[in-house]
Amino acid sequence: MTETKEAQDVVLRLSGITKRFGALTANDAISFELARGEVVALLGENGAGKTTLMNILFGHYTADEGTVDVFGQPLPPGLPGAALAAGVGMVHQHFTLAGNMTVLENILLGTRSLWTPGLGRAAARRRVQQLSHDFGLAVHPDARVATLSVGERQRVEILKALYREARILILDEPTAVLTPQESDALFETLRKAVAQGLSVIFISHKLHEVMAVSSRVLVLRHGKLVGEVATAETDRHQLAELMVGAEITPPAPAEARPGATLLRLDKVSTPARGNRTGLRSVDLELKAGQILGLAGVSGNGQGALADLLSGLETPSAGTMELAGAEIPRWSPREALAARIGRIPEDRHRTGTIADFTLTENAVLESYAEAPVAKAGWMDWSAARRAAEEIIETYDVRCPGPETRIRLLSGGNMQKLILGRVLGAQPRIILANQPVRGLDIGAVTYVQQRLIAARDAGAAVLLISEDLDEVLTLSDVVRVICEGRLSPEFPRGSKTPAELGQWMAGQGFDDAA
Amino acid sequence: MRLDPITAPSPARRLGLPALALGATVLVAMGLALIAGADPLATLGLILKGAAGSKFALLETLNRATPLIFTGLAVSVAFRARLWNIGAEAQLYAGALLTVVIGTQLGLPGPLALPLMAFGAVFAGALVLLGPVLLKTRLGVDEVVTTLLLNFIMALFISYLLEGPLKDPMGMGWPKSPALPRDARLPRLIEGLRLHWGFGLALISALTVWVMQTRTTLGYEIRATGLNPEAARFAGIPVGRVLVKTALISGGLAALAGFSEVAGLKGNLTADLSPGFGYTGIVVAMLALLHPLGVVVSALFVAGVFVGADSMSRAAGVPTYIADILLATALLFMVLAILLTKVRVVRG
Amino acid sequence: MTEIVDILISASFWAAVLRIASPLIFATLGELICERAGVLNLGIEGIMVFGAFAGWMAVYAGLGLWPGVLVALLAGMAFGALHALLTVPFGLSQHVVGLGITMLATSSAYYAYRLALPEVTSPPRIAPFQPLHIPVLSDIPWLGQALFSQTALTWAAFGCAALVALVLYRTPLGLAVRAAGENPQAVEAQGLSVAAIRMGAVIVGSGLMAVGGAFLTMSAFSSFFFEMVNGRGWICIALVVFGAWKPGKALLGALLFAGFDALQIRLQQTPMGQVVPYQVFLMIPYVLSILALILMSRRAEVPAALMTPFNRGER
């Protein structure tokens, strides 16, 4: 009964959290407190340990050292159920929804003892509708999740937490997949939540968002808590320095000198596959010596366009010309033969074979040709030389070419892919999310390599959901929405907000 | 509990755990003997003696291993490409069928007949697996169930032939095919020893498959397709065609088991030609970790267990099915042991 | 054609359809539960064999019929537990483990059979379940014989289908099972244990498979023969696909399938059976299963996480 007001206000306390993965210390003795009704931003580069920390708090991982207290009670480690029961709700970066079930069913999952006979749908539906209304989270409770847009799915995730009466809301990179306008709507929801006494931890690596939404900023670097500042008393500049330990200098490409058109799409459409949007009568020109950046909310046809250029997809209508000639047949092999270099979106699933060695991965696209193969026989020493050259040239940190690639970090894996792709001296480069999940050093490295390839005369198509990245690198920007492409916007001609409207689908019908 | 990968497993772990799995299987064998009221150690001894205790026993084991090497190779080639060929049994019978048809119906002289029989067998086995694989690559139909069901269809088809068109008129009413002429049979590997050239062919096949997998682009394609078809397709590997080629090789190898059994051992086709060699091939391949040369070793082991159990059963009265139980437990223990060489079980 | 019509209007045909469908319904539901939770259970064939043996053996050894069913159920659950242990927390290949379980269960049944009855040439019989007489309904002419002359175990099969549908779609447990097969992360994030749900589903599903097997020895026939399951387990896997992983459709699939099976048995007795070899008739069930798979190949909604192991906290 002698608790001070301050102690009552602390809803969450992390003390000395340490987590190691092998030799890597992902979290190093991290301590902080969260007060009632505040938004704390957790800022840090990819790989700084933000997600690991929150996964420990939520019980997905068990910390090696340290404790978590929620509302003054210690939280048993390793049990998401305990975190939920204590009032912690988490919106994961990768949504945790079952696509075959309705919104309501996803929300109800795990809210009742498994042995209760009924679901109580009617009452639950009313509560969900009430919550939707109160927090500005419009979504139909009986819609199948598989049919929802990315923005809607995020709303379901937040509703899941609110339905369980979460008092502490953790959002992991929530804006990564949203348009600027959707992000604003999310911030509005968070303000409403805070007004009702909830506390929010907002994980991000985007400075402007952190400045906009938080009252306090915690900065993580290499697993350590390196700064804790009130948002009102800091600025982007200082946060950036705290975050990377030095001032960030985003690559500033020189003026492009576009050359001939290397690839032309004329009214190309591709079929929708499952939940994946197809292309709808797309015109596109990729010019030598130019980076064309494609912005857009994920799932709007980027996959279809990437597959088309990769050779995995063929146009169902329209024509595709390479260096002025229409393509006769089309497959990944033909794409490679046409000297299209492809950096795939998912380096783990598409870009590499985890249980292959670096050598085997290095020749994945050239295994059938000399010098690696002769008349159907592999020349493994030639393959090893190819791998060693990539390791050397692209600074791939690894024990050796006979290491299985699954043991490499994401950055080094991406460098190997980059080496494999650029080593073939492609004329056209498809770079699909080339820096996603990489730390700042690797990001800069990959971006500089892409700019260098452009300067050497390659046509680059950069696909990214990160608008900032698109704006930094691209000579020309186009926006994709529901399988359609916006007109070309030269560098600097549109603000992020204007592009955001295109990303939300405005302007397409006028342009058409 | 959770599994954490071990980056560099110690040799003790890599060798010790599989040894432990075999040890556990031996314990199960002793337990089963106890249940049957036999002396566990004596039972083990009898199995060992029956499998390798004499020249006769050893030759019997080698003969039994021959079809298992073929089916084991068939399974290992297919599984490498993540093509779940559970239909080696059907492919074996298809091979046996063509062997008998070519050998008995065409009236060719031996030197011509034998290669043609082998070729026909391979063709038939490949064809039997081609259907399920095309259904998989074209329509996405799961090949596990289709290959399994084809085993039953093939068994009925063979039964029909043996009671109808292919029935031996001299067979005193038994459902069996006419016998191959003398010169259309595989010769002895070594004069005077009851071991036919099928065994030699099996060893050559294992070596060929090993070279194919490690040294050729096709082998590279097969491994890439098996480990990650999505990445393989992206990299320009024609995954569908690779699966078809794999199927042709796998089906052909399984069919050679039928060829070798008919032309090397039995001389004719009966409905009980294979006591489940096709299914046992899965155990053989898994115990060998899908390595083609390992298949030879594990086929010898598996054949030894069968032959040994047969002979032990006559002496000690423990049912022969002990062999099947042991192989199933060895399989399960082994896959677990191999996993545990790569991961560590941790709490939380 | 007239022969087919004659068969279709005979009451005994419809009675046979329900009888043939019963073991398939049990086992298909069992497989469906496993797959809905994300685990392919190829142990089904062997578990059915063991269930057939265990139930029959229990009754032969002096237990009652229902306790016999219970013995089969528990035996199936034991093999299910082994399957679940290896495939769920250890995440081993569901193909390899499933086939291993089939071999283990089958050979264990044969081994135990030979131990229990070393000398017999023809297996002893038990007194199986008798058709349940339902007042009024069973006495309706034709219909009574066609539909209401079944054993309690057949009724239990239909009851099971309703129960499984109810649980899957109307209870928190069913929600968790369906989510586990679609996106295990969703289950984990809502504070439930994916491993517990999947293991539970495999164990319960395997129990049902064994009861399906036991139906063969305790209701359809009265003894245990080797090879009596004869691929029924694999057919049930095809039926799960045919039923698009939904209990109601799977039930219909089992009935349809049993209809063809009952028809081919009867056609063998007709003049047609004199011309066409009997093996062709016996092939029909297997051919139909393959056709069913082809038919559904483009449409079926496979549980998204089927055969995908889940390891907590994997990076």
Structure description:
The complex is a heterotrimer of chains A (512), B (348) and C (315). With 512 residues, chain A is an alpha/beta fold. Chain A folds into 3 domains: 5-244, Rossmann fold, CATH 3.40.50.300; 250-339 and 426-512, Rossmann fold, CATH 3.40.50.300; 348-424, no CATH class. Chain A has 19 helices and 23 strands. In chain A, the strands form 5 sheets. In chain A, strands 13, 16, 19, 20, 21, 22 and 23 form a 7-stranded mixed β-sheet that branches. Chain A has a 6-stranded mixed β-sheet with strand order 6-7-8-3-9-10, sandwiched between helices. In chain A, helix 7 links the parallel strand 7 and strand 8 (199-204). The longest helix of chain A has 16 residues, at 180-195. Chain A is globular, with a radius of gyration of 24 Å. Chain B is mainly alpha-helical and 348 residues long. Chain B has a domain at 67-282. The mean pLDDT of chain B is 95. Chain C is mainly alpha-helical and 315 residues long. Helices cover 70% and strands 0% of the residues of chain C. In chain C, helix 12 (247-267) runs antiparallel to helix 14. The longest helix of chain C has 27 residues, at 194-220. The N and C termini of chain C lie far apart (63 Å). Chains in contact: A-B, A-C, B-C. At the B-C interface, helix 6, helix 11 and helix 13 of B face helix 5, helix 11 and helix 14 of C. Chain C: It is a multi-pass membrane protein.
> Over the alpha carbons, how many angstroms does the gyration radius of chain B reach?
21 Å
Largest interface: which pair?
Answer: B-C, 47 and 48 residues
Rg of chain C, alpha carbons: 20 Å
- Number of contiguous helices of chain B: 13
Protein name (chain C): ABC transporter permease
Transmembrane segments (chain C): 6-27, 39-59, 65-88, 95-113, 147-169, 201-226, 232-263, 275-296
InterPro entries (chain C): ABC_transp_permease (IPR001851)
Membrane topology (chain C): Multi-pass membrane protein
Quick description:
The complex is a heterotrimer of chains A (512), B (348) and C (315). Chain B is mainly alpha-helical.
Name a few traits of the molecule:
heterotrimer, A: 512 residues, Rossmann fold, 3 domains, seven-stranded mixed sheet, 23 strands, 24% strand, disordered N terminus, C: mainly alpha, 0% strand, globular
